[in-house]
Write a structure and sequence with these properties.
- The complex is a heterodimer of chains A (426) and B (302).
- Chain A is of the alpha+beta class and 426 residues long.
- In chain A, strands 5-6-7-3-8-9 form a 6-stranded mixed beta sheet, with helices on both faces. A 4-stranded antiparallel beta sheet of chain A has the order 10-11-12-17, with no helix packed on it.
- In chain A, strand 8 and strand 9 form a beta hairpin.
- In chain A, helix 4 packs across helix 5, helix 4 packs across helix 6 and helix 5 crosses helix 6.
- By secondary structure, chain B is mostly helical.
- Chain B is globular and about 65 Å long.
- Classes of the chains: A alpha+beta (426), B mainly alpha (302).
- Strand 4 of chain A pairs antiparallel with strand 1 of chain B.
Chain lengths: 426, 302
């Protein structure tokens, strides 16, 4: 039973026709069609070369095949425009494929957006029923779970208030709560976790984990959030320009995906990260560039196991502001967060002036064994996340005597100062 | 109004109807180019709850947003009826059918006509207005324009209050014909749905199509026998022309309403009525088939 494929995708392809002529406007106007037909009367003799050159086929997906087994949680990763959304749209029947086919077994619910169909004029209660129906729940089902949904969202007092008066946090919480109580056999989720405050995100992640592990549902999960993917998913599929680039275990998939972006950057030089892919896009406050420096006094400037490591961060801000949480995170190659040097831990706010600011984060002792580590950057206030870059650049940590020892197997993550001796027993 | 809608909902006694996938069964959903057809009507039935909830949403939003709410659904047809009675009866000197008061005759026609015109304009906007919804969730798209028609239907039911008021005022007692009214309401519903679907699909494809709709409505108000009796046309232009006139499906619908409400005062001219019915059916078939042909590409162009 558990080895059964519940989603089977064969040679899936979807083509979009891009009309260069009509780029200015998103839709066809009847007047243009009539005008074109009319003009056509007079130039019908001429070969219609221009017509062919103006339209171009764009394959958003091409020849994609994979199988998802019952109870599996599969992450779909890829850059923007890799075809993730198109794939989800086909799987959730919003658009139909141009070629190939998909076979699905079981009830599918797709969550491509939080709060689809919410109407600002309606109350929380009415929107819960509306949204539930849109997501495919029956009235009886919603009625049964209504209290649970409201409790999860924590909006008991505001049930009969129109949602237009809700704060954006409440709005998102209610929307996610409805979605989280769906009980489909197959759940398709698109990046909806990138919303709400940190506390609520944690709650959502927990709920997602329950759905997949305890309740044994099949989940397809698209996200840019690698740590969410690595925590939730048992397998991963990488899409690249509409093609499947990888299909296998999550850890390998993430490594492969991240390797596309980050190379080991040279120490003691400014690394441009203004154009790095980041969650939620770039806001008014962003990491502009960064540099890292190993222990002073060394000519190579590489980070050394057990020694100090300095990160220099340049942050661009549109106004003068104070930020409570700035952190540098070091990940393992399989994307476990190893350490998080957060200003919050020091109860220290970072004051940013308008324009470019430089902030230094110094790690006094780097307890990491030699190897390559992706570096993540984070910038937030309690209510607002400005920046979350999961893989800004990669560093290479070496041993003190600059001796790489790959021959000696060492599967620990941390480095520590240790010696081994045999006490003389009396 | 919401109370009314709830009662309506309960009286339909909805049962959840989502069949669970049977263990060991083969794949129960296959997605392929051109394949979406097969379970269409079954899907439509399965999504009937969504249809009802969307219709309720539209209705409750409609009456919440306007300051005067339901009153608007009463004032508008009432004033239109007054002006039409003055112009066609008092100024143009046209006569009513039989002994029926002119105001009631006009209002009996305005009920289906206003329903038709508001259904036409609200369906045409429905798809574009719900673009967000259709690009994020699957459901049979037919639900959207259909629920827009239902919203107009709510206005239609409210305006019945005016008719009752008028009948009390003029002390008109309806004959047994009134019992057939639900049948004609059904025909009016279908008459609005057919062109509504056609216009919805056209409006998604050609976004400037909506500019034509106010014109169609305004033109139709005078081309249909709203302010005058259809017998005026028959007397002045003869039967042959009247058959041609009945190609306008609203002629049959309006005559049906008048026959049901005014009784023998307003006899139905059967050949014309049948022709109108055929046209209603034809529009429905064209509307549904064109809508279904284009609905698959809605999300790609909206």
């Amino acid at each position: 039973m558990s080895n059964q494929s519940v989603i089977s995708v064969e040679n899936l392809g979807k083509v979009y026709r891009i009309n260069h002529q009509a780029e200015r406007q998103r839709y066809v106007a009847l007047r243009d069609v009539i005008a074109e037909k009319f003009q056509g009367l007079f130039r019908s003799r001429r070969p219609q070369l221009d017509k062919f050159s103006s339209a171009e086929d764009f394959w958003a997906l091409k020849d994609v095949s994979f199988d998802v087994k019952q109870g599996e949680v599969t992450g779909i990763i890829g850059r923007n425009g890799a075809g993730k959304s198109t794939l989800l749209k086909i799987l959730s029947r919003i658009t139909e494929p141009t070629e190939g086919r998909v076979r699905i077994k079981g009830r599918v619910a797709s969550l491509l957006e939080v709060g689809t169909g919410f109407h600002p004029e309606l109350t929380g209660r009415e929107n819960t029923y509306l949204n539930g129906a849109i997501l495919g729940m029956s009235r009886a089902e919603i009625r049964k779970k209504f209290d649970e949904i409201v409790a999860f969202a924590g909006i008991e007092q505001f049930l009969d208030t129109p949602v237009k008066r809700y704060s954006s946090g409440m709005y998102v919480r209610l929307a996610f709560a409805v979605a989280a109580h769906l009980e489909p056999e197959i759940l398709i989720v698109d990046e909806v976790l990138a919303v709400g405050d940190v506390e609520f995100q944690k709650k959502c992640m927990g709920k997602m984990q329950d759905v997949s592990t305890k309740e044994g549902r099949t989940v397809l999960f698209v996200s840019h959030n690698m740590s969410a993917i690595s925590r939730l998913c048992s397998s991963a599929i990488i899409l690249n320009k509409g093609n499947k680039a990888y299909d296998g275990t999550t850890n390998q998939g993430i490594q492969k995906y991240l390797a596309q972006f980050s190379e080991i950057s040279q120490p003691a030089t400014w690394i441009d990260i203004a154009s790095c892919p980041r969650q939620g896009g770039r806001t008014n406050v962003y990491f502009h560039s960064a540099a890292y420096l190993g222990p002073s006094g060394e000519s190579h400037s590489l980070p050394v196991s057990g020694k100090e490591l300095l990160f220099k961060l340049r942050i661009s801000s549109d106004i003068k502001r104070s930020v409570s949480s700035l952190s540098v995170m070091i990940y393992s190659p399989s994307f476990q967060k190893l350490l998080n040097a957060d200003s919050l831990l020091l109860a220290q706010a970072v004051l940013l002036e308008k324009g470019l600011n430089e902030v230094h984060v110094k790690i006094h002792q780097l307890h990491l064994k030699p190897g390559r580590y992706p570096i993540g950057l984070w910038l937030a206030n309690p209510t607002e996340i400005f920046e979350l870059i999961e893989s800004a650049f990669e560093i290479e940590v070496i041993n003190e005597d600059n001796r790489q020892t790959p021959e000696i197997p060492n599967d620990g993550v941390m480095a520590c100062d240790f010696n081994i001796y045999q006490p003389i027993l009396t | 109004m919401r109370q009314l809608a709830r009662i309506l909902l309960f009286s339909m006694s909805i049962q959840p109807d989502m069949p669970p996938a049977e263990a060991g069964a083969e794949f129960d959903l296959i997605l392929e180019a051109g394949r979406a057809e097969k379970n269409y009507w079954h899907d439509l039935w399965r999504y009937r709850e969504l249809f009802i909830i969307l219709a309720l949403r539209d209705i409750s939003v409609r009456y919440k947003q306007t300051v005067i709410g339901i009153a608007w659904a009463l004032i508008q047809p009432f004033l239109t009826m007054v002006i039409m009675t003055i112009i066609f009866n008092k100024v143009a000197g046209l006569h009513s059918v039989g002994s029926a008061p002119y105001a009631i005759m006009v209002f009996a026609a305005m009920l289906p006509w206003m329903f038709f015109s508001s259904a036409l304009s609200s369906t045409s906007q429905s798809m574009v207005g719900n673009a967000n919804l259709i690009s994020k969730v699957y459901f049979p798209r037919l639900i959207i324009p259909a629920s827009a028609v239902v919203t107009s239907f709510a206005d239609f039911l409210i305006s019945f209050l005016i008719l009752i008021g008028l009948m009390i005022w003029y002390q008109v007692v309806p004959s047994w014909h009134i019992l057939t009214l639900p049948l004609f309401i059904g025909i009016a519903f279908l008459a609005a749905l057919g062109p509504g679907l056609l216009i919805t699909a056209l409006n998604v494809k050609y976004r400037d199509f909506r500019y034509i709709i106010p014109f169609i409505i305004q033109f139709g108000t005078y081309a249909s026998p709203v302010g005058f009796s259809s017998s005026v046309i028959r007397e002045k232009f003869g039967e042959k022309i009247f058959i041609l006139y009945s190609l306008n499906p609203m002629v049959g619908v309006i005559d049906g309403f008048r026959w049901a409400i005014l009784g023998d005062n307003s006899p139905i001219y059967l050949p014309g009525f049948v022709l109108s019915l055929v046209i209603v059916g034809l529009f429905l078939v064209i509307g549904i088939s064109y809508f279904r042909k284009t609905e698959k590409s809605f999300v790609d162009i909206i």
